[in-house]
Specification:
The model has no long low-confidence stretch (mean pLDDT 95). Helices cover 26% and strands 23% of the residues. The chain is globular. The strands form four sheets. Strands 12, 13, 14, 15, 16, 17, 18 and 19 form an eight-stranded antiparallel beta sheet that branches. Strands 1-2-4-3-20 form a five-stranded mixed beta sheet. It is built from 13 helices and 20 strands. A hairpin with a 4-residue loop joins strand 5 (90-93) and strand 6. By secondary structure, the protein is of the alpha+beta class.
Length: 434
């Protein structure tokens, strides 16, 4: 495939197979995913994005936008991979409580800028995850129980459509596209910037506690008690860890939007367990929200899976709490509910399920088959407690967008796609027509 026209328009920023640096530029954040793309374009601004899309439309080549590739799914053979990490900039309007960010901005940058004004975005748990991809897929994090999906906080998108035209998308201008972009993925336009609401943080308390595996049942029972009565300001996530060359452990992550004394009282059951080997709870600046889980910030090879749980019945407890987790390194249960279950104006919509299951394994060659097998065993064992739908940002490379939406929402998303991009020039990691 020849890209000389594109190279002429964007000198020095178009890489094809065989070029020095191509392999690294095409590599996503998850090293377990391969991306056999036809070219990689490193965009510097929205005009670059528009030029790439116009070229793709003429050539009939799909374009896939990725700042970092955290949500990469593979399956983008012979596409143009459009790297938008160069579209930076964070502007905070503290009086209006609005942030405007470029498509390449990461959540840690937003939190650092917003926290200086006593504000927060609806960030996830990892500071190097890109704001755009996370938000287009809905975006669930520590403050979602209080304020809902990150996608519902968006007030405007700046986009390039499938013809290469730049536009501003709001509830008043292009309302159907605005609805679709708020949680329906990036299949409808290339987002170059977005504006979203920020929220006040008078105080923030959180951190991780960790115990030896012998305390697993006690920690899980405390998790059940805490989540049964938790106010929306409190989020807790339960973990079972089996790190390589380390003994098994159990942990609880806590985030509370409020004073430390009040937060500590809400999770008093954890103090009664005893024998904690780690206790990092304390008052935190909201810019340090990523420190709670201390997730990797460098690219790595992993295999993950997410499922929505309808309850924590006996089969769930037996499988997720009592049985061994190896070869997985983490079994995590997140408490949902709160604002996530309430009205939502974007495509993501409300989530009735009270818990989210997330599993993680290291994608080492000798473990890959065993990890997939263990995930399948878990799903088989607790199938009656899984709803069948998934948050978009927890889809796996083997799944499609259809797994994240009910039929009515999926039909509406497909109608938006057909109206905006009938040739599928713009492709999401999980396309709605795939």
């Amino acid at each position: 495939m020849v890209f000389e026209e594109l190279r002429s328009a964007l000198p020095g920023r178009v890489l094809v197979p065989g070029d020095e640096g191509f392999d690294g530029a095409a590599r996503p954040w998850s090293l377990a995913v391969t991306q056999p793309v036809a070219a990689v374009v490193q965009a510097a601004d929205a005009d670059d994005v528009a030029a790439v899309v116009r070229y793709a439309a003429r050539a009939g080549v799909p374009v896939v936008a990725q700042p970092t590739g955290h949500g990469a799914s593979g399956g983008i053979d012979n596409a143009i991979l459009l790297r938008t990490k160069g579209l930076g900039g964070v502007a905070i309007d503290a009086e209006r409580r609005i942030a405007k960010v470029g498509a390449g901005v990461q959540w840690g940058q937003v939190q650092a800028a917003a926290s200086a004004h006593g504000l927060t975005g609806l960030a996830g748990s990892n500071p190097v995850v890109g704001v755009t991809g996370y938000t287009l897929g809905g975006g669930h994090g520590w403050f979602s129980r209080k304020y809902g999906w990150a996608s519902d906080a968006v007030r405007a998108f700046e986009v390039v459509d499938a013809t290469g035209r730049q536009a501003r998308v709001t509830a008043e201008h292009n309302p159907e596209l605005f609805w679709a972009l708020r949680g329906g993925g990036g299949d409808f336009a290339v987002v170059t910037a977005l504006e979203f609401e920020l929220f006040p943080v008078p105080e923030f308390y959180g951190g991780r506690m960790m115990w030896p595996a012998g305390k697993t049942r006690a920690v899980f029972e405390a998790f059940q008690e805490i989540t049964a009565a938790a106010p929306d300001e409190l989020s807790v996530w339960f973990h079972r860890f089996q790190f390589p060359d380390a003994p098994p452990m159990v942990a609880m992550d806590v985030a509370y939007l409020g004073a430390a004394d009040a937060g500590r009282a809400l999770i008093a059951g954890l103090d009664a367990i005893g024998d904690a080997i780690v206790d990092k709870r304390g008052v935190l600046p909201v810019s340090a929200v990523g420190d709670i889980t201390a997730e990797p910030t460098d690219p790595s090879a992993s295999i993950s899976r997410g499922e929505l749980l309808t309850d924590l019945g006996d089969a769930v407890v037996k499988t997720l709490v009592d049985e061994q987790i190896s070869p997985l390194v983490d079994i995590q249960i997140r408490h949902l509910g709160g604002a996530l279950a309430g009205p939502a104006s974007g495509a993501r919509g409300p989530v009735a399920e009270p818990y989210l299951l997330y599993t993680l394994g290291l994608a080492l060659p000798h473990l890959v088959d065993a990890i997939h097998s263990r995930n399948a065993e878990i799903v088989d064992a607790i199938g009656g407690h899984i709803s069948g739908l998934k948050p978009y940002t927890f889809l796996t490379p083997a799944e499609s967008a259809a797994a994240a939406f009910d039929e009515a929402v999926l039909d509406r998303l497909r109608a938006v796609k057909q109206a905006r991009d009938p040739r599928s020039i713009i492709r999401a990691n999980y396309p709605v027509l795939g």
